[in-house]
Amino acid sequence: MRWIERTWYRPLSLPALLLLPLAGLFALIAMLRRGLYRCGVLKVQHLPVPVVVVGNLTAGGAGKTPLTLHLAQQLAARGWHPGIVSRGYGGKSVTPLAVDAQTDPALCGDEPLLLARASGVPVFVCPDRFAAGQALLMALPDTDVILCDDGLQHYRLARDIELCVVDGARGFGNRLPLPAGPLREPVSRLDSADAVVVNGDGDMLRHERAFRMKLEAGRFYRLADRQVCEQAELSGKTLAAVCGIGNPARFFATLRELGLNFSEHPFPDHHAFAAGDLPDADLILVTEKDAVKLAALPGLGALGDKIRVLPVRARLEPDLAGWLEERIRHGCKAA
Length: 335
Prior knowledge:
- The protein is of the alpha/beta class.
- It folds into two domains: 2-214 and 315-329, P-loop containing nucleotide triphosphate hydrolases (Rossmann fold, 3-Layer(aba) Sandwich), CATH 3.40.50; 219-310, Rossmann fold (3-Layer(aba) Sandwich), CATH 3.40.50.
- Helices cover 29% and strands 20% of the residues.
- The protein is globular, with a radius of gyration of 20 Å.
């Protein structure tokens, strides 16, 4: 998988050229599918509250989950009652499932569990996001806005606002469709999104509503007891950074910005960790997304005492949550 991604994010190469016929077929199917929803052949389902989709155009991580978390917390702080729905990628549940802090990540997936633990708002998962939204509203009828973590291409669920996240460092790679490149939809799809959020450094895209997101590191905490530990505790220790997110390089760069020296151990996005994946080191540094799976490993024991978790939080410029609230208050019309 890492080899494929390296092919995507470099100039046009021989492997990408060989995959062009499949990429053309993928693009055609994606275009036809979207067209069938737009003309009503495939039915779009509407929920009775505003739906905000947080998605992206590329395969892999771009920062959707931290943005969803940020918006959920910001809206709740402003008096709204948001809920979150997600496909639950990597989880086994095929029917709507309410996710709480004790849910097995094997059932719900890593990102929904992280959102349930960190956001303080209800989270439901199902491959059918509309069904997840229905279940959430039935269980919590006071919910007045739903955030869909991922799902830009899940057209069965009607959406009132689309937010498209772009990785500022990697951009759109070779700009080819899957599998020759990283694109799920063409870059022109940005034109129909309500706002674009550029995650990290990189050129701001020419869009009517463009926002910059930066992920700011918090304080490390111990996986075993969630007690905050000072960075000085890491001094003089052999450190290993283990990461199974869409773009591990972003996590490694954050650790380097903190002045840490460590060995890098990248894994595919949503990797199902086993104890044998963890390297021999004094301390092991992981993301919160990976931590929810590692904490569920049976028999982790003393190895778990070595794990330190680095939380990150999104900061948006200008105020995306304020803009979003105004859109919701005005019936989601352009504002």
